């Protein structure tokens, strides 16, 4: 191959250096040649696969193929956004991720300047709030009491593998809730839930579904809601949660189902949706008391609690909303996640990657992935795009409906034992009382 000939010539020139040239200099020269070869091979394979329109794989997990469908225009926008962040020194390794950047771009309708400002504000908030360490630093000791006055939780996945989040809004008692916790502590619990979602829940669901997952399906049961009982304190909590979500965790909702909605609620919704972005209203389904068939279109019966028309009745204390049922409890998946954290690769997009990896091992690792994968050749994040441009590939999304139609129901998800001390394992109270504030709804779920 031409690349091999170039490498051989480079080696020969390196060996014929002046006698005083050290062995170390020869090794550095060879390392540069290996890097050039890796880049050339990557680029060549990228263009070849683009012509054939192959699917993308996520290489966060070497032993599993995780499909990642991407749109060419969105990829171009992410590339531009990423370069803008790099030039401003606003891209820490922990956030150098294709899908994270895409979510922020969508939140600002792909306006690069506005998205850069949103991103900078998010990084500042994380530093001030201590978000990066909140999983280790914060323990929500009052969780059990909070759950009594605000029933909520994750329960299983939908037919595409997304986590299902459920709230029984009609059973919320705002005044009693505020007697057992504070707004500040509840907000920290809320943020901790989001952090666990991105660190554990979404990756586990991606492994189980073998496709990228970063959104939830939400069900809000408003049966018995007393709108008059919502106090000023509760409304303040709602608005602060809305701001945190909209500013720092945008684009995390796939669909929302508001069930047991009465005629008054439907009238309010029909009025409010005229003021919202059509992309927002398209995600929200307001249903009456005959909602079961609609839910079963997107969620298998075994994944849906019996009080919502499904067949699941978790035996643990507190029922389905206390079960935390989902692939994030599967021992094999947990092992993969723990291994990923222990051996997380250096971000290829980092400017100092050559200083942190032995150059020859680095090139060998990249070329091995390129050579051994003729169908797919994609790292797990946009941070690797500078070395492996095949991160910007796409597949035909028309297969999605066929996958839903042909797949077997997901009915064997692991349910953990109920442990009242593991308060951190119950996640994402992301819609608490928020449905009463339709003017603020858009910032959370667009």
TrEMBL record:
<protein>
    <submittedName>
        <fullName>Phosphatidylinositol/phosphatidylcholine transfer protein SFH9 isoform X3</fullName>
    </submittedName>
</protein>
<feature type="domain" description="CRAL-TRIO">
    <location>
        <begin position="142"/>
        <end position="316"/>
    </location>
</feature>
<dbReference type="GO" id="GO:0015031">
    <property type="term" value="P:protein transport"/>
</dbReference>
<comment type="similarity">
    <text>Belongs to the SFH family.</text>
</comment>
<keyword id="KW-0333">Golgi apparatus</keyword>
<dbReference type="GO" id="GO:0005886">
    <property type="term" value="C:plasma membrane"/>
</dbReference>
<feature type="compositionally biased region" description="Basic and acidic residues">
    <location>
        <begin position="10"/>
        <end position="28"/>
    </location>
</feature>
<dbReference type="InterPro" id="IPR036865">
    <property type="entry name" value="CRAL-TRIO_dom_sf"/>
</dbReference>
<dbReference type="GO" id="GO:0000139">
    <property type="term" value="C:Golgi membrane"/>
</dbReference>
<dbReference type="InterPro" id="IPR036273">
    <property type="entry name" value="CRAL/TRIO_N_dom_sf"/>
</dbReference>
<dbReference type="InterPro" id="IPR001251">
    <property type="entry name" value="CRAL-TRIO_dom"/>
</dbReference>
<dbReference type="InterPro" id="IPR051026">
    <property type="entry name" value="PI/PC_transfer"/>
</dbReference>
<keyword id="KW-0175">Coiled coil</keyword>
<keyword id="KW-0813">Transport</keyword>
<dbReference type="InterPro" id="IPR011074">
    <property type="entry name" value="CRAL/TRIO_N_dom"/>
</dbReference>
<keyword id="KW-0653">Protein transport</keyword>
<dbReference type="Pfam" id="PF00650">
    <property type="entry name" value="CRAL_TRIO"/>
</dbReference>
<dbReference type="Pfam" id="PF03765">
    <property type="entry name" value="CRAL_TRIO_N"/>
</dbReference>
<feature type="region of interest" description="Disordered">
    <location>
        <begin position="1"/>
        <end position="29"/>
    </location>
</feature>
């Amino acid at each position: 191959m031409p690349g091999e000939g170039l490498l051989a010539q480079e080696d020969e020139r390196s060996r014929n250096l002046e006698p005083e040239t050290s062995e170390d200099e020869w090794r550095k020269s060879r390392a540069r040649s290996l890097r050039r070869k890796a880049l050339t091979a990557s680029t060549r394979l990228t263009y070849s696969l683009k012509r054939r329109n192959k699917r993308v794989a996520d290489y966060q997990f070497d032993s599993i193929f995780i499909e990642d469908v991407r749109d060419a225009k969105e990829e171009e926008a992410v590339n531009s956004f990423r370069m803008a962040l790099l030039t401003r020194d606003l891209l820490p390794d922990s956030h150098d991720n294709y899908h994270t950047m895409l979510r922020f771009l969508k939140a600002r309708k792909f306006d690069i300047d506005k998205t850069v400002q949103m991103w900078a504000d998010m990084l500042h908030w994380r530093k001030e709030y201590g978000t990066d360490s909140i999983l280790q630093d914060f323990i929500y000791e009052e969780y059990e009491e909070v759950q009594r006055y605000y029933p909520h939780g994750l329960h299983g996945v939908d037919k595409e593998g997304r986590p299902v989040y459920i709230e029984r809004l009609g059973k919320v008692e705002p005044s009693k809730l505020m007697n057992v916790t504070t707004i500040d502590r509840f907000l920290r619990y809320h943020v901790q839930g989001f952090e666990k979602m991105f660190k554990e829940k979404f990756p586990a669901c991606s492994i189980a579904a073998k496709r990228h997952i970063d959104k939830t399906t939400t069900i809000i049961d408003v049966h018995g809601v007393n709108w008059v009982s919502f106090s000023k304190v509760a409304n303040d909590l709602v608005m602060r949660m809305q701001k945190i979500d909209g500013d720092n965790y945008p684009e995390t909702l796939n669909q929302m189902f508001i069930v047991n909605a009465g005629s008054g609620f439907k009238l309010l919704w029909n009025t409010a949706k005229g003021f919202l972005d059509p992309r927002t209203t398209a995600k929200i389904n307001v249903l009456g008391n005959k909602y079961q068939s609609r839910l079963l279109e997107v969620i298998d019966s075994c994944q849906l609690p019996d009080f919502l028309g499904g067949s699941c009745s978790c035996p643990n204390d507190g029922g389905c909303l206390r079960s935390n049922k989902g692939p994030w409890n599967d021992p094999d998946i947990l092992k993969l996640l723990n291994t990923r954290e222990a051996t997380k690769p250096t971000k290829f997009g980092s400017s100092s990657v050559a200083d942190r990896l032995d150059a020859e091992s680095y090139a060998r690792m990249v070329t091995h992935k390129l050579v051994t994968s003729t169908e797919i050749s994609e790292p797990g994040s946009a941070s690797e795009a500078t070395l492996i441009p095949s991160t910007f590939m796409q597949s035909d999304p028309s297969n999605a409906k066929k996958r839903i139609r042909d797949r077997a129901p997901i009915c064997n998800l692991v349910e953990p034992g109920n442990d009242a001390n593991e308060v951190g394992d119950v996640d994402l109270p992301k819609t608490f009382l928020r449905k009463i504030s339709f003017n603020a709804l858009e910032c959370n779920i667009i």
